[in-house]
Design a protein that fits this description.
The protein is α+β, with helices and mostly antiparallel strands. The protein is built from seven helices and six strands.
Length: 215
């Protein structure tokens, strides 16, 4: 296999995997920019290896199929690690699905189908970006504004991030201000009423809340 061809595959895998990873990073997901790049590059490398074996040792198309199946199975275990079940809620399914799709994209690149890989990236980004906006507009109709005062705790921000992640909620306009021995915190998020109630229950486990206001 030509060295220039290998470099082209790796560069394309970095570019397309990075593009998807940027969206995941901007959405504050656990598998972000670097993770998606590594998954795409790794899949492309494995498929390139299979193509090289066929070219050098006269293998059959079954070699490509077995390599693809092995990569997809391995990514399945990686994706399972991003799924979290807590308080009756399941979070991380979109992240796991994205890793699986990015691995498939890497396999396509590794097999030498450069144009189809670029074309297939478009619907992936379309689903992650546009459909998320549609979901927020029509499936998560309520916008909640939280304002509360909680006694000083060094882990409050970490606790908030974990709580929002477990409930599949993205906090926006987060503001924290210290007043004497307490923190005044405000933020907003889109959510269904059911998820908001679960979030509300978990909030009181973060510390001693002195005052809570929800708009």
């Amino acid at each position: 296999m030509d060295l220039i061809e290998i470099l082209l595959k790796l560069i394309l895998a970095i570019a397309l995997g990075g593009l998807i990873g940027l969206e995941r990073e901007a959405s504050q997901k656990p598998a972000g920019f670097r993770t998606n790049i590594l998954v795409c590059v790794g899949s492309a490398m494995m498929m390139s290896l299979a193509v090289g074996i066929i070219g050098a040792k006269g293998g059959t198309g079954d070699t490509l199929v077995r390599m693809a199946a092995g990569v997809i199975t391995g990514i399945g275990f990686l994706g399972a690690g991003t799924i979290v079940h807590a308080r009756g809620m399941v979070a991380g399914l979109t992240t796991a699905s994205t890793l699986w799709v990015v691995a498939g994209l890497g396999l396509i690149i590794g097999a030498g189908y450069y144009v189809p890989a670029v074309v297939l990236t478009a619907p992936i980004m379309f689903t992650l970006v546009l459909f998320r906006k549609i979901e927020e507009a029509y499936l998560r109709k309520s916008l909640f504004h939280y304002h509360f005062t909680i006694k000083e705790s060094p882990d409050i921000l970490s606790g908030l991030r974990k709580l929002s992640f477990h409930n599949g909620i993205k906090l926006e306009k987060l503001n924290l201000k210290k007043e004497r021995n307490a923190f005044v915190i405000s933020f907003s998020f889109f959510s269904t009423e059911e998820k908001e109630q679960e979030f509300n229950k978990g909030l009181f486990n973060l510390g001693e809340i002195e005052e809570l206001k929800i708009d």
